[in-house]
Amino acid sequence: MKEQIQIFDTTLRDGEQVPGCKLNTQQKLEIAKELEELGVNVIEAGFPVSSPGDFDAVKQIAETIKGTTICGLSRAVDKDIEIAAEALKNADNPRIHTGIGTSDYHIYSKLMTTPEEVIERAKHAVKTARNLCAEVEFYAEDAGRTDNAFLAKVVEQAIASGATIINIPDTTGYCLPEQYGEKIKYLMNHVPNIDRAILSTHCHNDLGLATANSIAGVLAGAQQVECTINGIGERAGNTSLEEVVMIINQHERIQRETSINTQLLNPISKLIEFEMNMPVQRNKAIVGENAFSHSSGIHQDGVIKNRETYEIIDPKDVGADDSQIILTARSGRAALRYCAQKLNFELTREKLEVAYDRFLSIADQHNQISNQQLVSLLESI
Ligand code: KIV
Ligand code: ZN
Hints:
Layout lengths: L2 E2 L1 E4 L1 H5 L9 H14 L3 E5 L5 H13 L4 E7 L2 H11 L5 E8 L2 H7 L4 H18 L3 E6 L6 H13 L4 E6 L6 H14 L7 E6 L6 H11 L3 E4 L13 H10 L5 E2 L7 H12 L16 E2 L2 H9 L18 E2 L7 H10 L6 H15 L7 H9 L2
Parallel strand pairs: 1-10, 2-3, 2-9, 3-4, 4-5, 5-6, 6-7, 7-8, 8-9, 11-12
The chain binds 3-methyl-2-oxobutanoic acid and zinc ion (ZN).
3-methyl-2-oxobutanoic acid (KIV) binds next to β6 and β7.
């Protein structure tokens, strides 16, 4: 049996922190319903202490969404934790996500304190949260740049204080996959009470490695992945949910599975793109406009003969439109004949040659040839 990886979606918290992506309560609620439908295990609904609007959004999501754990973020500060607990009080499965920075940058520059004091604050925060909420997740901010031996001490104390999920954020997207995987493995092997908690990945994409790092974490033993739809998030973004889920689905050797209904990946991607006004790059894996489009002659010929020659995912499996053959000046005769057939034009070998010559001279002037342009070309021969 494959092990289940918990999908923790933070689109509404880490994703929503992005300038220009702010959502109102109604929008958050609508997205939360779609995330529940998608099959995520945890929805991080917001950071309740940050504003009355966010408090209200977390509260309403906690009251409405019943099939998924609802999580609220807090710093290791009593007031944050109390307000998060208040926002979550009507959730069926509430979770407080609390934590503190553990790297030298955080300890000495941001918090201006000592490693010992960080451990004390971590213990206190987890105990406070645990008194107010049945489930507590602890994050060690900037764990990616934290010394592993110190991180192990913090994690041990957080677990001893009552946290059952331990988040290891690569907050600055610094780690290499190998390093991040080793960090998870180190914690699995050096934290004496690790059997009382699960480890979670939370990777940022500053070097374009968020997805690779999350998968390295899973392979090293992490059981939860924190991610966002379309990979939105601070700076270069977070791990993209659709990428992690499809990598796990595609690779038997990973020996893991998720509860995500993959056919809803493209519809929810479009919803987030629209509601957050954050365009998805055309070549984005799984959900980009070009993810299943083929425009060069060599690829088109292969796909027309057998889709799997150039596609490892069936677009239907991720709720995308069928594979597209795009006619450009790089297309070949096979693609032209295929597109003509789809428009009910049968081309003899001679006609195909004439059509192809005309097609090339038009295609050289345009990015792409539309159906309308193709019909007038075919009618003219
Ligand atoms: O990236 C990060 O460290 C975070 C934590 C607040 C969980 O988002
Ligand atoms: Zn983050």
